[in-house]
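Subgroup meeting minutes
Present: P.N., E.W., G.H.
Scribe: E.W.

1. P.N. recapped why we're keeping a running log of single-chain structure predictions: easier to compare across weeks, and new members can see raw inputs and outputs side by side.
2. G.H. added today's entry (188 aa).
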Amino acid sequence: MTLRLHAFVPRSNANGPGIRAVVWVQGCSLACPGCFNPRTHPFDGGEIIDVEDIFSRIRQAAPDIEGITISGGEPLQQGAGVLALLERVRHDTALSAILFTGYAWDEVQAMPEAERLLQCVDVLIAGRYDARRRLRYGLRGSANQTIHLLSNRYKLEDLENVPQAEVLILADGRIILSGINPLQNKPV
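Output recorded in log:
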């Protein structure tokens, strides 16, 4: 099983509670106006990588992290690969899982394998980004997005007390600006 990967970061403070590994998938047809990650939209970008390779990276980071966050791109447009990764994390680690999707809650519930997927996720943040309803705090990018606590691992306040942005310098020298709308925190 493979995923088309945009980027992987083994340690982030701005993508959920605690220190988290972050998987950004490549490819999204939703193309929400004002999306912070338009580079993740083309389906021919990124790299195709085996789910086991991503899981291996997560395991290497596991002693130092609280969980994983999967974002994109649109993770659920690669549902089989994302499900395989989430099941591996759920069954073989004690890490938490946060999943971002541009699909609304009812759209997610109607997807094949939704029940299996949701059993592997602690927090689902659902809904298309709406720049007109942008938020300046917490993990939701806009007020129309919904938070679904699918386990008792986190409370809403845990998701609101997350740094808005961070600058990450990767081992290969790439610089990643990460978080929920980090460029939009500057004064207007």
